[in-house]
Amino acid sequence: MAMLSAQARADIEALKTRYPIARSALVPALLRAQDELGWLPPEAMAEVAALLGLSVETVAEVASFYSLIFTEPVGRHVIQLCTNVSCMLAGSDAIRAHLEGRLGIRSGQTTADGRFTLRIAECLAACEEAPCMIVDRERYARLTPQRVDEILNAIDGQPAHAADR
Amino acid sequence: MSERVLLRHVDVADQDDIATYMRNGGYEALRRALREHTPEQIVQMVERSQLRGRGGAGFPTGRKWRFVPAEAPVKYLVVNADEGEPGTFKDRTLIEGDPHLLIEGMILTCYAVGIRQAFIYLRREFYLGARKLERAIAQAYERGFLGQDILGSGFACDIVLHRGAGAYIAGEETALLESLEGQRAMPRLKPPYFPAVMGLYNKPTVLNNVETLCCVPWIVREGPDWWLQQGPPQLYSVSGHVNRPGVVEAPLGITLRELIERAGGMRDGRRFKACYPGGSSSKPLVAEHLDVRLDHESLAKVGSMLGSAAVIVMDETTDMVRVIARVCEFYREESCGKCTPCREGTVWVTQILDRILHGRGRMEDLDLLRSLSKHMTGTCLCPLGESVPPSLNAGLEYFREEFEAYIRRAREPVEMPVRIVESVPAPGG
Fold first, then answer.
1. What's the CA gap between A67 and A70, in Å, rounded?
2. Please, are residues B89 and A128 in contact by the beta-carbon 8 Å criterion?
3. What are phi and psi for residue B46, nearest 5 degrees?
C-alpha cells in the first residue's frame, strides 16, 4: 500500500539520476517524501528504501541523524527559533518565552490543534538580523514579541507551505 | 576605505538574474579563461593571489588544487555551503546577493583543475539561497556557461545543487562528503582520506568554501596583482552589540577596533567587553586585544584564530558564563557522537556549566572544566569537539571572577537567573 503519490515516486527516481551513485539521493528523497506527508512514518521510509534499493535500517539510520528530517509527526507549520549567541545577545530568550506563552507549549512540542511545532534552531546564519526564526521556508528577522504576533497571525489559518523544499 | 569587491554587487536589484550579472561584468572571467588561458595559468593566478580558504582553515587555495592528481580521470568539485558556525553569515550573503558569482567561480575552478562534475552542498536552512541558486544554475545552462560544450570551447561541466537536512557537522569537509554520499554526516579519519586524493566516491575532490570560490572570478578577471592591491579583500561577519551588524568587507588584517568602527561602533555607547574573532570555535578576545590585526598570523599569536572571520562583539553588560554555556551547548547538540572526547566531553562540560548557572556550582568545578578542556584538546576526530576548549579557556582566564560569583552566590538564598541550558540526563543514569 503506497503512501507516496506517483509524482513523488517519479521525482525520487529522477533524483537518483543526478548522482553517480543512487544512495546520494537518499536525503533528497527522504525530504521529497516529507514534503508530501509532513513527516516520515516508517511506511514512507520503507518505500524510499525500496525505491533506492537500500535496507529499511539504512534509511532509518540516516533519517534519524538529521534534525530537519522529521521521524515523528510535526505541526502544519514548523517554527525554528534561533537562540544561539548572536540571537541570545539580541534578546532571543524573550522571543522564546513569548512564543511558548502564545502557543501554550514548550520548545520541541506541537500545539494541541496541530497548527504549530516550535523548535530551537542552532544558528540560522542570519546573525546580522538577530533575533531570527524560520517558519516553514521563510526567514523572519529582527524579531520583537509584536512582530512575532504579526507573523503568526498572518500564517495561521493559511494552508501550510505545501512543502519544506 | 577601499571599494568593495566581493560585496560590490550584492545589493544590486536583480543581481541574481544572469542578465544583470553579465551587465556588471559577470562571466567575463570565464570567457577570457576559456579563450586566453590554460588551466595551469588559472592555477598560477590563484597561487600568485595568495588566496587562502575562507571556510575556517585558511589553507592556500592554489596549493589545495595542486594536491589533486592531474592524471585522475574522474574528480569532483564540492562547494561547502553548509555555513552554520554561530556568528557566520557571509556565505549566505553572497549566495543570496550574487549567486552567479559563486557559479562562475565554480566553473573556473573546474576548468583549472580539470573537473567535469561539481556539487554545491547547501545547508537546508538556506531556503532563499536555494531558490536563488536553482534559478541561477538553470540560467547558466541556458546561456551555455554550463553543460557539454561551454562557449564552444569543448570544456564540459555540470553543477548539482544538493541540500542538507540539518546538521552543523556536515560543514566539516569529510563529514560533508559522507553526507553527500547518503550517509550520516560523520567525519572520516584523516589520513588517509584527504579529500584531494580520496574524496567524494573515493575520487580526488576539491572542497572549497563559498567565499573562496567567489574570489576566483575577480582574480582571473582583474589579475592577482590587482587582487593583492585590494587588501586582499576579506569578508567579516560582524554581529552582537554593534550599531550596524552585517558583513563588512575590509582588507585582510584590519584591526578589531577598526572593524567595530566600520560596524557602526558599540551599541548604546557601551564599552567593549569581549568578542569571538573567528566564530564560536575561536578563543574570545578581550579589550587588550582591540588593536590586534584580524588575520591568520596575528590571531594565532594571541592564541585565537581567524576561522570563518565571524566576529561576535559583546559589551560590558554581557554575562560571559551564559555565553560560554550557550556555545558549549551548541557543540553538544551538534556533536555527531563518533568520538568519545567530543560525545562525552560536550555533555559533561554543559552539565557543569548548567549547575553553575543554576546555583549548584562548586569552586572545584572550575578545575574540572579546566581538566576537561585539556582532555578535549588534540584528542577529537575533527574540529567540532576541539571548538569547546577555546571558550572554556578564555572563560577561566579572563572571566574567572564571573564564574566564581555565580558559585559564591549559589550559597546564598537568592533567586537564580533565568536558565538557558536545558538539563541533560547524566550519561548512564
1. 7
2. yes
3. -65, -35
Contacts of A94 in chain B (CB under 8 A): none
Three-state SS for B121-190 is EECCCCHHHHHHHHHHHHHHHHCCCCECCHHHCCCCEEEEEEECCCCHHHHCHHHHHHHHCCCCCCCCCC
Q: Which CA distances in Å does B187 have to A60, B43, B173?
A: 19, 28, 8
Angle ∠(B213,B216,B218) on CA atoms, nearest 5: 130
* Contact criterion met (CB < 8 Å) for B87 and A69: no
Chain centroid to CA B22: how far? Answer: 28
Nearest to B136 by CA among B19, B29, B219: B19
In 3D space, the residue among B189, B130, B195, B190 whose CA is nearest the CA of residue B160 turns out to be: B130
Q: How far apart are CA A54 and CA A29, in angstroms?
A: 12
pLDDT one-digit tens code per residue, B108-152: 999 999 999 999 999 999 999 999 999 999 999 999 999 999 999
Q: How far is CA B344 from the centre of its chain?
A: 25
**Cβ A66 vs Cβ B165: under 8 Å:** yes
Contact B376, B386 (CB under 8 A): yes
- Summarize pLDDT for B205-232 with one digit per residue, the tens: 999 999 999 999 999 999 999 999 998 9
Specify the residue for cell string 500500500.
Answer: A1
Helix spans in chain A (H): 6-16, 26-37, 42-52, 56-63, 85-89, 92-103, 145-155
Give the closest of B165, B168, B201 to A31, CB-based. Answer: B165
Q: Is A78 on the interface with B (CB under 8 A)?
A: no
Place of cell 564571573: B402
